[in-house]
Amino acid sequence: xxxxxxxxxxxxxxxxxxxxxxxxxxxxxxxxxxxxxxxxxxxxxxxxxxxxxxxxxxxxxxxxxxxxxxxxxxxxxxxxxxxxxxxxxxxxxxxxxxxxxxxxxxxxxxxxxxxxxxxxxxxxxxxxxxxxxxxxxx
Length: 138
Ligand code: NI
Description:
By secondary structure, the chain is an alpha+beta fold. The protein is 40% helix and 30% strand. It folds into two domains: 13-47; 54-137, 2-Layer Sandwich (Alpha-Beta Plaits), CATH 3.30.70. Nickel (II) ion (NI) is lined by residues 65, 94, 96, 102.
């Protein structure tokens, strides 16, 4: 953290009490900490609009491992984004949920535009039952 500057914020009473309730529920120890996080989140979300911004993401996929073509395609796609490429698969986690279904969490790092493209590619693969992309600009 750089040099700290103090600012004053004017809020109407009702809004402030709703904010205090919210941050208490979320477990914040102080208003300052909650406001800092809101500012960071806002800035990060703004950067997500820029395809060239750097980001990290986790792609969650639930799929039936009996669709072997999907498994091969997913593995192939991950191997095409290893250390040398601008978009990297930095980790993946595989959990066997039951007899049929697997959960795979694939962590990507690269430019926001590329992450979105690869994630959409994964999420739209035939055989993926459920999927979700969680991305933050760094
Ligand atoms: Ni499995």
